[in-house]
Amino acid sequence: MKIAMGNDHAGVEMKNQIMAYLQQKGHEILNVGNDDPLDRQDDYPVYGEKAAKLVAGGQADCGILICGTGVGISLAANKVPGIRAAVCSEPYSAKLSRQHNNTNMLAFGARVIGVELAKMIVDEWLNAEFEGGRHQRRVDMIMEIERNGHLASAE
Ligand code: RB5
Fold this sequence. Notes:
The protein has helices at 12-24, 44-56, 71-77, 91-99, 115-127, 134-148; strands at residues 2-7, 28-31, 62-67, 85-87, 105-109. The chain is α/β, with parallel strands linked by helices and 155 residues long.
């Protein structure tokens, strides 16, 4: 798979470890994150947007975002039309975020979880598939809010 990766200074070390882990498994990484952990003036929205645009534009199959908590960078990515990014600190939510919510980006915090847990989360997320069915309707509703600013069914 082609996987976009974005991170700020807080996520550099973890990004490097996850990137190596995924490359070892044969994935291609499009790294648009910061590579300087000392650059504390960088802003996570820059990297969230870059990675999200690769996913939304189809240049990447999916994306992984890392900042201190995973929150800021996922919020930024979710502002790019077509993106459904979820912050996950354990594998269960990561798997379900794919199966039920059809997430196309996964985020986590380098200051929240360790790298071995991050690898487990990434594996569960990448191996899970969207189940469609009743979940499709709900994902469609999320995208309707993005498109129209509201749900027609709620009017
Ligand atoms: C940077 O210090 C930190 O705010 C950022 O990495 C992230 O945790 C924001 O959500």
